[in-house]
Amino acid sequence: MKLKPETAEIYRRYAALFAEARSDLKVGQALKPKGWCVTSGIYPNEVEPQGAGIQVFRTGWFNENGNGVHFETWMKKSYHESGSLPFVLHVETGKARAGFGQKDFQKLFLERAGADLQQHGYSLNERYAMEPVKCCREFTPDSFVSVVTKEFRLLSRFGKTVDTIIEELTKAQ
User: Fold this and answer.
1) What separation in angstroms does the CA of 96 have from each of 22, 52, 92, 105?
2) Which of 24, 29, 62, 48 is nearest to 167 (CA)?
3) What are the pLDDT digits (tens) for 35-82?
């Protein structure tokens, strides 16, 4: 199905806003502790965009190609129309590349961080190992960048938990 030009333009506008959020997150050590990586852009490509998004992760999370462990949000037409943006932890890597399975990671992450994340409005998903936690945050065109940066600042507090789980699981193999 061919994408309408106005939809492609929506994705391009949000890609620019995600780039602004990426810049804000990299300035002044917005993410604690140090060592965070932030990528954003249009996917799968500029010619036929299907959405725009941003990922936040740390070195060692097997996310070199964008398909490891990362915090993420993305824009699709339905999110634009609803004014609500998803924020998730994605665990897209597996035993072949990382040495541990999604379910092993998910179990430990939910045990250690689930209750804290629930207090911040996140739902826990024990049945979907690739996306163990998720919440949606409302935004307006004026608040979009601040909503994204605020949420990733919150999620960065769980970076050490992810680091520890990855370290434990890779040592256990």
Assistant:
1) 30, 28, 12, 14
2) 62
3) 899 999 998 777 777 889 999 999 999 998 899 999 999 999 999 999
Residue ranges making up the domain that contains 40 = 5-172
Q: Which two tokens stand for residue 70?
A: 């990362």
- Write a three-state SS string for 45-64: CCCCCCEEEEEEEECCCCCC
| Cα–Cα distances in angstroms (integers) from residue 117 to residues 65, 74, 124, 146, in the given order | 26, 19, 8, 20
The CATH number of whichever domain residue 168 belongs to comes to 3.30.930
pLDDT at 137 over 60: yes
Task: Domain count for the chain, please give it.
Answer: 1
Closest alpha carbon to 89 in 169, 156, 19, 171: 156
Contact, 145 vs 20, CB < 8 A?
Answer: yes
DSSP string over the chain: -PPPHHHHHHHHHHHHHHHHHHHHHHGGG-SSSS-EEEEEEEES-SSS--EEEEEEEETTSS-TTS-SEEEEEEE-HHHHHHTEEEEEEEE---HHHHSS-HHHHHHHHHHHHHHHHHHTTPEE-TT-TT--EEEEEE--TTTHHHHHHHHHHHHHTTHHHHHHHHHHHHHH-
User: Does a cis peptide bond (omega within 30 degrees of 0) precede residue 33?
Assistant: yes
